[in-house]
Amino acid sequence: MFHLLHGLYKRCTQKKEYFILILGLDNAGKTTLLEKAKTKFNPSYNSLNPQRITATVGLNIGKIDIGDVRLSFWDLGGQEELQALWDKYYSECHAIVYVVDASDRPRLDESKAAFASMIHNPHLDGIPLLLLANKQDVENPLRVNDVKSCLAEAGAPYIGRRECVALASSGLTGNGSDIPEINN
Ligand code: G3D
Q: Measured in angstroms, how far is the CA atom of residue 107 from the centroid of ligand 1?
């Protein structure tokens, strides 16, 4: 009886949990963004000093509670050898945030290639996608439209099979801006 009541109580009080992958090349700013988001949604969270954040190696997990929803973010390492592990997480994720370093023009094609192999994976069909042109606080960054059209070359029809929004962002400052959806 106790177990039954305990189970019922747990079921009524537990939050709905969604898993979100944060992907992109190493140094794109994924961990910094996650730290900033955790601080924004949980003011009591003691965030890491941005100076002390190093490129993600392996997996970095962050949880954000909004109302009765829990968002669990998996920030995956973006180094070439770690990209091979991304697809292990695809079948369980509910959304993807793909981060591009808008201050790094020379690596845009590399980011496009990583994006292409991700977006063609059948496990991700229909999974909502947020594209971020990050580091907008630097001088003369790539604009969100540049990033958007570059990634669209990697597979516009695949991108179009889902809800997709592209935004400019700065994980350092926490600022961002809305722009029109990529596939509408
Ligand atoms: P990653 O998790 O994608 O590998 P990190 O990237 O979050 O570790 O960030 C990599 C570097 O980029 C860090 O600098 C970090 O401070 C910087 N960075 C992250 N986001 C922004 C941003 O929005 N604007 C600027 N200007 N820099 C950013 P270091 O010097 O520690 O390597």
A: 15
